[in-house]
Structures are given as C-alpha cells and as structure tokens.
Specification:
Elements: H1 2-33, H2 41-52, H3 70-83, H4 87-112, H5 115-127, H6 129-135, H7 141-157, H8 165-182, H9 186-203, H10 207-236, H11 239-244, H12 257-275, H13 279-299, H14 301-319, H15 333-349, H16 355-371, H17 374-379, H18 387-396, E1 404-406, H19 411-420, E2 434-435, H20 442-448, E3 452-457, H21 462-473, E4 476-484, E5 487-494
Parallel strand pairs: 1-2, 1-3
Antiparallel strand pairs: 3-5, 4-5
Helix pairs in contact: 1-4, 1-5, 2-19, 3-4, 4-5, 4-7, 4-15, 5-15, 5-16, 7-8, 7-9, 8-10, 9-10, 9-14, 12-13, 12-15, 13-14, 13-15, 20-21
C-alpha cells in the first residue's frame, strides 16, 4: 500500500512538472512575442506578399523569393484583416501554433510513453532556442510542427477497425487537405499515417480496409500533385534557393568519407538544435535515439511507422535535393527526434534498480537547463534587424528621402515600415529613399550624390559591409554613424576637393 501511494505521489509530481515545463514554454513565448522585434528581411517579404495580394492570389507562388503554404498565408491575411499590419498581428498565428504544439506534444507522448519519461522531450521542446525563436517569427515553421504532430496524434486516436469506412475517409480527406495546403512537410507525416493504417490492416488480413487506406492515399496524392506543380515546383527549381540550401542537402549514395561526414554533420546539427550542444548531452541524445528506434521497432512496430517513416522520407527527399535540412526548414523533424528520445528514456526509466531512474531524472534536468534559452530571451530583446533604429537615426539628422540610400538587404524591411506598418507616417519624410539593388555602384553614388547622404544597411555580411564602406570613403567623409549588429547607418559629406599641385612641387 505504501509503495502504491508513493508511486501515486511520484506520478502526480511528474504530471505537475510536465505542466510546469509547458507553462514555462508558453510564458516565454508570449514574453518574447511582446518584445515585438522588427521584421527582418524574410519576414518583411512575407508581409509584403500578404499586403499586396488577395486571398486567392496567396494560393499562387509568392514574390520576393519567398515560400509559404496557402493556408498559412490565409491565416496571416485573416489576422491582418482584424488586427492590422503590425508586427504582432503578423506573428500571432505562429505564436498560437507554437503554444498548441506543446499541448499536442504532451498528448502524443502520453499515448506513446508515460509520465516517467515524457517530461524530458516536453522540457527540451519548451526551452530550446530554435523553438522559442520560430514561435515568434513570421515564418511557417511552427505551423509545420503543429500540423505534423497533430496528424500523428489523430492517427493514434482514430482506430480504423472501430470507425465506419465513410467516416474514416471523410476524416482523413479533411485532415489531409488542410495539412497538404497548410504545411509542405505534411506529405512526410501523411506517408507515415498511410503506412501505419495500410500495414496494420494487412497484418490483420483486413484487405478491404487496406483498399480504403489506399483510396484515401490517392486522394492525398492527387492534391499534393496539384500543390506541387502549382506552387512548389517553381520554387524548388529556383536557382537562388537551390544554391542557398546546397549545403543542407544530403548525399543519397555517399561513396567517400567526406560525403559521409557531410551527411553526419547535417544530421548532427539537427540533433544538437533539438537537445543540446555539449559533447556529453549530444552523445546521450544520440544514444536515446538509437535505443528509442530499436525498442520502438521491437515493441510497437506499427506505431513506430508514424515516426520513423516521415524521418526516412525526409532524409530521402534531402538526398534527392528536394528538401533542405537547414534547421529552420527541418524544424518539424525535431519533435519527432524528441518522441524517439522519450521512447528510449521510457525503457531506461523502467530499470528495476531504483537509483537509475533518479540519476536519469537529474541528468535530464541538467540537460534541459543547459539547453534552455528561456531566461536570456525573456530578459533581453534580441533584434535580428533593427531597421527602425536606423530610420529614426537618419530622419533625426534632418535628412530627406532623396538623401538616403537603402542597401538591398535592408530594402524589404524599409518598405514594410515606410509603406505598410501602422506607424508608417512616422517615416513619411524618408519614404522616397533610394532603394538599391544588389549590384549597386556605391563608388558612383558617393561621387555623384548631393553633399550630405546617408547609407542604411541591416542584412549584410561583414565583408560586404567593409567593401561598401571602402567604396563610399573614396569620395566621402563620415560625420555620424549607428553601427551595431543588425543596424548600420552612416552619414557622409563630400570630401573637400584637393587643390591642384603647383608646378614647383
């Protein structure tokens, strides 16, 4: 009796601890959300698409080298209809997706493991920097996470053997439709769902049900084909995107050591972003992934398909140069890693030697603490691009738009804040600044522009910044500056003309 009561107390503590971790994750996300950081280049370009297009037009390939699924874009458009075009209105949907994803992750882990282990994946997901950042950023990565986890949870909750065939098809037709048009990675999750139902029906010799699953899969495939050729294919084949993501594809058939190392380094980065960067916890998490995979396949093969098939499919796509494993694009993979790690931990926590679960719990706490960026991100507002500070600076110097030159990297954010943002009239005097292209001739600008000019930069590599300033300084003398990470603004006047040398010199 005493042992049972003790176990009940432990379970109650672990449940409350899991809820505490979720609460920490939600509070930290809301706090960072209210920091209301400036939109940076990619966010600003998404905002421009939302502002410039109708709902129908948002279902076509986007402008400004951007990709986002139609459902995501429609939710942004809907948010701006009611809340305007401010930063928080644009980021609200992402924030809600992130908070919901923590809840779905908890429900998913409860179905696959128990309270003794689910706190670890929940904790890492709640505090990881990459999860916090993209919970408050105007990109589709957190909605990808929510949709993928929701599909897996729906599969676990929907028993094909205890539901009418019509209801099964209708349920998964609706879920698949929303998922396909709402998150590109859903195709990997739906592949896992299809395999889970199809092979389970075959295993039980329910061949008619296998046919129903295959029919549902055809419905998904037809929709994805339309989506692929209408929206995705033109962007996948973009030379700009292919070149940008080249280092994040995999070698499908690595034949030399350097190719194997490349593949491992790409995957290792994802594991580190998921659970920790130190050698110890990195190795521990790899061990949990190995153990989790092995036990999953051995103890619950059918359910393992929901997790392992999407991972295998995305690795195959990366090997075919069809899907980038850059961490933000592959964000949906990380909760799947966490599920496997949690499953592996579940097996270890079941060891009868009582000291083992205690040690594992303490080590897990240390791992979560080490990986946490909650405190730092809540306390300090971290601007990626601080374009408004640069705009305030040059306007405060009394300059007008004709005297201001905006670097190509700062151009999208400048357009957003001067033409779209609710406070755009604050910068009306500089709205008509010169918006430069990537191949702008800064030496020519310095030589031919009026006496006093300003140069505004945000997204710029250090070497490019150095070359740009050197070109300006050939003909110009700097008289004022704001120069910090994400905000570079310089005021120049012409250098005085040099007197011609006398004949006696």
């Amino acid at each position: 009796m005493q042992l049972r009561v003790k176990q009940e107390h432990i379970d109650r503590f672990l449940k409350l601890f899991a809820f505490f971790l979720i609460l920490c994750g939600v509070v930290s996300r809301v706090t960072v959300f209210f920091h209301s950081r400036n939109l940076f280049i990619d966010e600003a370009n998404i905002a421009r698409n939302v502002f410039e297009r109708s709902f129908l037009q948002l279902a076509t390939p986007l402008s400004y080298e951007q990709y986002a699924p139609p459902v995501f874009m429609w939710m942004l458009k809907l948010s701006t209809v009611f809340l305007g075009y401010g930063e928080m209105a644009f980021r609200l949907f992402t924030l809600l997706c992130s908070a919901a994803a923590l809840g779905v992750m908890y429900l998913l882990m409860k179905r696959l493991t128990s309270l003794r282990s689910l706190w670890y994946p929940i904790g890492l997901m709640a505090v990881a920097f990459i999860m916090l950042r993209y919970s408050t950023e105007l990109k589709q990565y957190m909605s990808d996470v929510l949709i993928v986890l929701s599909l897996i949870l729906l599969a676990l909750k929907t028993d094909i053997f205890n539901i009418s065939r019509k209801r099964f098809v209708l349920t998964w037709f609706i879920a698949g439709t929303v998922a396909i048009w709402g998150a590109m990675p859903s195709v990997f999750a739906l592949t896992g769902v299809g395999c889970y139902y199809f092979f389970d029906a075959l295993r039980r010799k329910q061949y008619a049900l296998s046919g129903i699953v295959a029919f549902t899969g055809v419905l998904w495939l037809c929709q994805f084909a339309i989506y692929y050729f209408l929206i995705l294919k033109p962007q996948i084949e973009s030379n700009y995107l292919q070149n940008f993501h080249q280092d994040y594809f995999l070698y499908a058939t690595p034949s030399v050591m350097s190719e194997w190392k490349h593949n491992w380094n790409v995957i290792k980065t994802l594991i580190q972003e998921t659970g920790g960067y130190s050698d110890f916890f990195g190795a521990a998490n790899v061990l949990l992934l190995i153990l989790g995979t092995a036990f999953f396949l051995r103890k619950d093969f059918m359910k393992s398909l929901l997790i392992l098939v999407p991972l295998a499919a995305v690795m195959l796509a990366a090997g075919l140069n069809q899907y980038s494993l850059i961490p933000r694009v592959a964000l949906f993979i990380m909760p799947l890693f966490l599920v496997i790690m949690g499953y592996g931990l579940e097996q270890l926590m079941g060891v009868r030697w009582k000291v083992v679960p205690v040690v594992l719990f303490l080590l897990g706490l240390k791992g979560i603490y080490n990986h946490s960026m909650v405190g730092a991100m809540m306390v300090q507002k971290k601007e990626i691009e601080h374009i408004t500070k640069a705009m305030d600076f040059v306007q405060g110097q009394g300059l007008t738009g004709d005297q201001i030159y905006v670097h190509n990297g700062a151009r999208p954010s400048f357009i957003y804040y001067s033409q779209i943002h609710p406070m755009r009239n604050k910068w009306a005097r500089i709205r008509d600044a010169h918006l430069l292209s990537w191949d702008a001739n800064y030496s020519g600008i310095a030589a031919n522009a009026s006496d006093t000019v300003a140069l505004v930069l945000t997204s710029v590599y250090p070497d490019d910044l150095k070359r740009t300033l050197e070109a300006m300084e050939v003909h110009r003398r700097e008289i004022a500056r704001v120069d910090e990470e994400g905000c570079h603004s310089f005021i120049y006047v012409k250098k005085p003309a040099q007197a011609p040398a006398s004949k006696g010199d």
